[in-house]
Amino acid sequence: MGTQNNAPDGWAGVLDGARRGALDGLRIADFSRVLAGPYATMLLADLGADVVKVERPGIGDDTRAWHPPADHDGTSTYFLSVNRNKRSVVLDLTTEAGREQARALVAESDVLVENFRPGTMERLGLGHKELRALHPELIYCSISGFGSGEGAAIPGYDLLVQAVGGLMSVTGNADGEPVKAGVALVDVITGLHASLGVLAALRHRDATGQGQLVEVNLLGSLLSALVNQASAFAVAGVVPGRLGNAHPSIAPYETFPTADRPIALAVGNDRQFAALAEVVGDPGLALDDRFRTNTDRVAHRGELRDILTERLGAAGADHWSGALLAAGVPAGPVNALDEAFAFAERLGLPGIVDIPAAAADGAGGRPSRQVANPITLSETPARYLLPPPCLGQHTAEILPRLSDHATEREGAIT
Question: What is the mean pLDDT of the chain?
């Protein structure tokens, strides 16, 4: 069952001198592709898990071909974003030999993660029931778009889920069309839920010795992530609409134009509003009956916006951000990504990390720039040991062992 508390096969040189990860000794058979599953397994790999990524011959993960943009070797930056710290093995699951090798990989793993369309793994003989009979301690994590019931046949694409799941209905200007988030946010949220579910199942297995099935789906993850908007409907029957960058329950809590570029104001209480009024040179706003409390400000949002727009037009976003933050008012310019990373660096927060070629496992590894794992652990921090793998980079290392295991299993059955 899985690996013990030692370095994964082939990692000895990589781990020399490295601090232990929180998930050292955990092996994950990763049959997932695109985003939700790979994001989940990358987070777990950063924390020490040995993730073996199973890919199709000649094609691999779909996102390998999703470019532009690409790095200097022509690899999609989309693929690179969610596949570090993994080893890649090519298995042909359309053949019995490939499926036997897959079962051999699962037999030595603690966790399996997959996001095929529901029913696919069962048709391949790799479904939860079959594998659990062979490996009762296995944690089997299945990620789908719309669950394994009535929605099993619906393709699980992020844009589709943002549309039918209600996110687009609350995103965009009130007089404009519904708008999707600028990234595949539902996939990311689902990946987070998947990794949390895996960790909870592992905790249960530690206590009982029993594995279990973990199921997450994009639609359910989105409905949960809609939080206050979903609660407005569930509790009060309110169906929220689009407010642009404004907030349905707080004001001012949106972006405003300035003399050069937009600024975001996130005024969460009356004290902050009084400070805002002082900084923009109109302290009487805090005493105005229209704006005295947050409820008042929400009711008179349009009037307040007009006043603040005029005041903020007197200077640029950086000026107002500095003055407002100094007064305790949450404010900041709308940054582009280069500015966002620079801002994080100035604050001493994790931003971009470099994985040098020397940190790779000697099988054609290359340097890679990566966005840092946001989880900070004082004793077992995230590690960046392996760049995202080339397709099948570790097949020669892993396949002989799997083939031997598969042969042994066939002999035991006969």
Answer: 91
